[in-house]
Design goal:
Number of strands: 4
Bound molecules: flavin mononucleotide
Number of domains: 1
Distance between the termini: 24 Å
CATH topology: NADH Oxidase
Shape: globular
Strand content: 5-15%
Order of helices and strands: HHHEHHEHEHHE
Helix content: 40-55%
Number of helices: 8
Mean pLDDT: 95
Strand order of the largest sheet: 1-2-4-3
CATH superfamily: NADH Oxidase
Structural class: alpha+beta
CATH class: Alpha Beta
Low-confidence stretches: none
Radius of gyration: 18 Å
Length: 200
């Protein structure tokens, strides 16, 4: 049987698989805000995530306030700059010096402790991926951002929690930056098929 070309294979993928395969981390955004209708669908996709014992230990906070995102960015960079190990700071500096890459919108996922302790982080990660995939499927770029914990870890942490409306007992989990790529040509990473094995 003739081997299918990669293009032929990709054309056969359904839309869900295409969104999974096309998602990539965007690290330069334009100022354009995604439409509210799209953000509402993305928020619903987030809520549709599975969670251990269906505890749903999360909140989904869609931050559209660009100056608040900039404040959190500045605070996070200040914290990074003050660390004795400067490698992360230098890395972000080399990528443009913005923790949140100029994204106009940021979905923040605070989490509350689940059982067993730590399980909430698995749940939170699945929510983040649901957000990124839903966004990709609608032509919106994204970046899952673990370093978004930084502004919540410093002296302005309580202030940011309050301004975002974290409920009592919730801590910062992950954020997903949303918007539109400032540069074309962003690509998904190479698939390392060596990491797959089948046991029959
Ligand atoms: C849990 C998690 C946290 C991440 N945190 C950051 C981050 O803080 N800053 C960043 O630039 N990228 C972050 N990334 C993006 C990864 O660097 C990226 O997924 C990886 O390099 C693979 O590239 P791809 O997403 O384009 O496939 C994070 C990804 C994950 C899954």
């Amino acid at each position: 049987m003739l081997q299918k070309t990669e293009n032929e294979q990709n054309n056969m993928l359904n839309e869900t698989i295409q969104a999974i395969m096309n998602r990539y981390s965007c690290r330069a955004f334009t100022e354009k805000m995604p439409p509210d209708e799209d953000l509402q669908i993305i928020a619903k996709a987030a809520l549709a995530a599975p969670s251990g014992v269906n505890r749903q230990p999360w909140r989904i906070i869609v931050v559209k306030n660009k100056s608040l995102i900039k404040e959190m960015d500045d605070e996070g960079m200040k914290i990074l700059a003050a660390m004795s190990d400067k490698s992360l700071y230098e890395r972000i500096k080399a990528r443009g010096g913005r923790l949140f890459y100029g994204a106009p919108c940021m979905t923040v996922i605070p989490i509350t402790q689940s059982v067993p302790a730590g399980a909430e982080m698995f749940d939170c990660s699945i929510v983040a991926e649901n957000i990124a995939l839903a966004a990709t499927s609608m032509g919106i770029n994204s970046l899952i951002c673990g370093l978004a914990v930084l502004p919540f870890a410093g002296e302005k942490g309580v202030e940011f929690r309050n301004r975002l409306g974290f409920p009592e007992g919730y801590e910062m989990g992950l954020a997903v930056l949303l918007g539109y790529a400032a540069e074309q040509g962003g690509k998904p990473h190479e698939l390392d098929l060596c990491k797959v094995s089948f046991v029959e």
